[in-house]
Input
Amino acid sequence: MNKYLILAIVVLALVSGCKSKQEKESLWGVYQEPIKPDALPKDSGVHELQTLWKKNIGSGATLGFALLKPIYYNGNIYVANRTGKVFSFDSKTGAVQWTQDLETLIFSAIGVNDNFAVVTHDNGDVTALNTNDGSVAWNTSIKRQISAIPVIGKQRVLIRTADGLMIGIDMHTGDIVWQIKKATPGLSVHGDSMPVITGDAVLAGLSSGKLIANSVINGRDYWETEISFIRGQDELERLADSDTVPIVQGTTVYTATYQGNVVALQLQNAAVNWRTKISTRLPMAISQKYLFVTGELGDVIALNINDGSIVWEQQAFRGHGISQPVVLNNRVIVGDASGRIHTLDIETGNLVESKKVVSGAVVSIITGDSQVAVFSSKGNISTLTL
Output
């Protein structure tokens, strides 16, 4: 584990008992990879990226640690800012469909289905908005610190909390239907992975380095498996959070842990197909042949999905605060702390194009409707095509 990262985590742990909430949040907000970056390489000179539209929706992640990520759904982009505003934009034109000001800080956003858009708040409340006009459908108080972006499926809204709870809420009424609790270590990386719904199961990575599968409807246990086998001498050395969002492709689940492994396992029974030693805290991306990972130091890595072998590794972005990867057409796209995005050849990892697209650090990057949307720490959102 990088000694500077250990120091950063220790400092955060120490200040948690003596600093104000705003001061603690600002520490999380400004943290960057503690590596001196090299100058970015020149791209190929090819200019494929075309900007569709840009918006500034107000405070992004600059008001402290938050989990804010846009989502494409049914021709719209839904996104929230830190101060409580939720937006629906036409994904092609950027036209505003509706705006709702909830007038309270939003911590995690946004989960969407045909009927509802769901956000959570710093105070532990969960709010569901009607997707047709943004009006409030219901508000439920969890009275706990939320730790992940909410997910909707199978008539449930799934919520995770920092003390190890996963909660299933009736998506129509906001009533709590079930909850399960899993043990959490004394020290973990801030934030949990989004749950993923596949069939009637919900998959979730735990801060203990495990992956669990439960019934979406009633929370019943299906299986639980250990992804990481770290055995350190203290809690810092044993950090093994599974903060990546599980990916399901066919009958295989791909997941990863911090200071641990990228793992492919069988959805039915959690039998492991392969493991590759790579540490990551960020969501991954997948194509028909490759699994793409942003490593702990900022390397972008392509793995063969059949055996986990490394196909290529792009190390040019170390220290630049590289985001999760996404895939669009034959390109892998990542963002950085300067507001630039970089497109890589999907087969070789070679840099194709770099382009400044937002002000502030890229905190989220998503694809949908044959385009890519980039969201920044300053609340800028930019959509582009290839």
Notes: The helical segments are 3-15, 21-30. Confidence is low (pLDDT under 50) at residues 1-32, 186-190, 234-240.
